[in-house]
Amino acid sequence: MDLQALLSCTRCELSENRQRVVVGSGPNRPTVLVVGEAPGKTEDEGGEPFIGRSGQLLFKLIEEEVGITRLDCFVTNIAKCRPPNNRPPTPKECEACRPWLLEQLDSLSPRVVLSVGNTATRQLYGVKEGISEIHGHWFELNGVPGMATYHPAAGLRSPNTVIPMIREDLRKLKSQLDSQ
Fold first, then answer.
1. Which of 38, 114, 170, 171 sits at 20 to 30 Å (Cα–Cα) from 65?
2. Strand 138-141 and strand 112-116: pairing?
3. Do residues 56 and 75 touch, judged by C-beta distance below 8 A?
């Protein structure tokens, strides 16, 4: 991947107001590629995805249910730049970033992909259904098995209902990893 080209990308309007391009972070050969929708304020400032409260919850659940840590995951987003006011990235913005994400997928060769939330799931797998309908379902992304689950921010808002569903999805992810 041409990191310099990514860091200076101007394929969409998000490049006009970003502090930085949030490429992602993790090992070169991750067990799981975690894909969210776009950097938030904390991520735009810190330069890494999922470093706020949502990320802390997500990786706590991954460690408890899958038995791996953030150090075993490469974490990135569909959109590499923060949308204004933390709005979801538009389909056009996601499409502009898709080649970068596919390059990451090819170069990292993760064992599985975990998409979190509606935007990431719809953009990654080309589905129209919402996360409440397809969480825990398996898809394929360039030959790599991928699963959808709720965004951890939804778990922070509704812990008694959403966190048990994320846990169930992560147990399915562990079963997939164990069977490989």
1. 38
2. unpaired
3. no
Total number of residues shown for the chain: 180
Cα-atom radius of gyration of the chain, to the nearest Å? 15
For 148, the enclosing helix (H) or strand (E) is strand 144-149
Give percent of the chain with pLDDT exceeding 90.
88
Token digits for 133? 């309908």
Identify the pLDDT of residue 18. Answer: 87
**Which pLDDT value is given to residue 66?**
98
Delimit the domains of the chain by residue range: 12-179
Spell out the SS3 assignment of 68-116. Answer: CCHHHEEEEECCCCCCHHHCCCCHHHHHHHHHHHHHHHHHHCCCEEEEE
Q: Which residue has tokens 């974490």?
A: 75
Q: Are strands 32-36 and 73-77 parallel, antiparallel or unpaired?
A: parallel
At 56, which amino acid appears?
Q
Q: If DSSP codes are grouped into helix, strand and coil, which group holds residue 6?
A: helix
CATH 3.40.470.10 is right for the domain spanning 12-179: yes
- Show the tokens assigned to 10: 């101007």
